[in-house]
Amino acid sequence: MRVLVAEDERDLADLVAMGLRRQAMAVDVVYDGAAAAERLAVSDYDVLVLDRDLPGLHGDLVCRELVARGSRTRILMMTAASSVPERVAGLGMGADDYLPKPFDFTELVARVRALGRRSRDQVPPVLTRHGIALDTHRLQASRDGRHLHLSLKEFAVLEVLMRAEGAVVSAERLLEEAWDENADPFTTVVRVVVSRLRAKLGDPPCIQTVPGAGYLL
Fold first, then answer.
1. The whole model's pTM is what?
2. At what angle do helices 152-163 and 189-201 cross, to 10 degrees?
3. For 136-184, what is each residue's pLDDT tens digit?
4. Which domains are delineated in the chain?
5. C-alpha 217: how far from its chain's center?
6. Helices (H), 7-151
7. What does DSSP assign to residue 169?
8. In which element (H, E) is residue 100 found?
9. What is the C-alpha R_g of the chain?
């Protein structure tokens, strides 16, 4: 899942990003509204965690512009203002969910995951294919009953491949969905992670390389 965190309190933004990355999400961070609008214009995110009171371009404007474009990105709006009128106003301008500060991090994760499921075709929380069971909530994976000890990046790549339901997934798409903006598209990082993932999945081999196109499960 690809997430953009837009929050001007840098310590909070970085903590939220770090916590979401530990949930196998690819997370980018910006600290003002103009930067958020710029990233949203060039990258396809599943969820935007949006502080309403951003400097520069206000969070309300970021929200309205995203909704006006018909983007599939789901918006979780955050603010210290937690009154009912404030929540109603935020939802009224197109936000999909509203979380007042301070918040419990487990609740934030649950809300981000729920919005992520709504941003794409509806899929169950436990994905199954070729004897593989991938629990996207508990971050647990197994094959034929054997527990798989996957890194967060290996888990994220396997999730993208399983969601594709047998379709070929390009290396570029894997980079977009499983890595953040700091990934170098000219490195062999995707090939290396896929190679490690193949080894951990074991026999019979289930990840196929399609020359010039990508990978399929």
1. 0.73
2. 80
3. 888 899 999 999 999 989 999 999 999 888 899 998 889 888 887 776 6
4. 2-118 (3.40.50.2300), 126-216 (1.10.10.10)
5. 20
6. 10-21, 33-42, 59-68, 84-92, 105-118
7. B
8. strand 97-100
9. 18
